[in-house]
Amino acid sequence: METAIALENVSYSYTRHTVLDDVTLTVPKGDFAMVVGPNGGGKTTLIKLILGLFTPTAGRVSLFGKKPDSAWSRVGYMPQYTHVDMAFPVSVLDVVLMGRIENSRRWRYTKTDREAAHHALSEVGLSDKAKRPFSSLSGGQRQRALIARALCGNPDLLLMDEPTANVDPAAEASIFELLSELNSRMTILVVSHDLGFVSKVVKSVICVNRKVLVHPTSNLNGTLINEIYGGDLRMVRHDHRCSHDGHCINDNLRLR
Prior knowledge:
6-stranded mixed sheet
């Protein structure tokens, strides 16, 4: 099986502070993996190393067998919601077209670029919002627009940093349903603090806290979660709900 992401004995330090230590990680093509761990554990650093934005202090990173900067055309990236300037006067279509910069020529968007942008908007259910100001969208719609931007270049690997931040539970469920569909044609790596949909759509969990360990979702339980986050957590289960009609079963598991 082809490998989408490979890290071999990778370490990274900020001055004297080691953030990631001797990390070896393989993400096979077609995987849907979620990166979890405590704040400051190295999740964002791991993503930046994969993207080639950071150079490892030691070790090697590759995407599809190449150096990260040689594989950018195969990668779609969605940054954290909080990193988007909501005051910038730009339309939804303009935001999505930014995902074609790698493919565009002479900094002009072609007919092909615009067709790709409209197709991406259609995939995320925002075809009718193309001419709307980006700032006028709801939180869930903004996240979908940013997903469309990442999809606009037709990537083989989709990297997403907190794609369900600042959205309500219904929008969160809708986004993960969309990602599950996209996983049929691309590898997906999601950074999140919310394990709510892990058991339903995610195939593997990458636990990051200076070191990196990979677990299948079937092994995710209270003991393992406690080890990942290094302290007591209150777990609220949504797979067992009592009602007037009796017991209802739901596959979702959410952390609070």
